[in-house]
Amino acid sequence: MDGTLTLAVHDFDAIRKELGLPEGKPILEQIAIYPKMEARRLHKQLDMIELDIAARSKPADGAAELLEALTAKGHQLGILTRNNRINIYATLEAAGLNGFFEDNNLISRNCVPPKPDPAGIHRLLNAWGGTPEESVMVGDHLFDLDTGRAAGSATIYVDPTGEFEHRDKADFC
């Protein structure tokens, strides 16, 4: 969602710093190693940081037109994100993209293990009666590409910088 449908505005290093987490390591995985009460506090703090970011979301160029075209052709659309569910709604609302997705096709870290675990893709495919071979995972992060690969889906790598650092992990760039 962030960096694909919307312009990427997350500064993960700044978020880690604000949470007091070590640099260079995934935020959710770092929080998971803390004792339960401290992890809960960190998740609440992360939720507030992400909600602020979500409220400032802007659509990526062509995102609405792409979603309209895919919907018109009858394609199933879902979102799988490491954000929480509330932030999905806030992001889509702020970006003006909330009319394209059914509620049960919005998959967050609240309902499945976070990416790169493929459980979210499997959940969507089971709901749709689809197979991995019929699906595509679109993303801007290595987690997205690893998730798609683990699920057996094709992967499309979106990188607005044009650098495509993880080109070797994607089927299409």
Helix/strand layout:
Elements: H1 12-19, H2 27-32, H3 36-55, H4 63-72, E1 79-80, H5 85-95, E2 106-107, H6 119-128, E3 136-139, H7 142-151, E4 154-157
Parallel strand pairs: 1-2, 3-4
Helix pairs in contact: 3-5
Separate helix tally: 7
Low-pLDDT regions: none
Biggest sheet strand line-up? 1-2
Structural class: mainly alpha
Shape: globular
User: What's the total number of strands?
Assistant: 4
Give the SSE order as H and E letters: HHHHEHEHEHE
CATH topology of the largest domain: Rossmann fold
**Mind describing the biggest β-sheet?**
2 strands, parallel
Q: Spell out the CATH superfamily of the largest domain.
A: HAD superfamily/HAD-like
Which range best describes the helical content: under 10%, 10-25%, 25-40%, 40-55%, 55-70% or over 70%?
A: 40-55%
Distance between the termini: 17 Å
Return the average pLDDT rounded to an integer. Answer: 96
Quaternary structure classification: single chain
Q: What does the radius of gyration come to?
A: 16 Å
CATH class of the largest domain: Alpha Beta
What is the strand content?
5-15%
Protein name: HAD family hydrolase
GO molecular function: hydrolase activity
Keywords: Hydrolase
Pfam family, one: Hydrolase
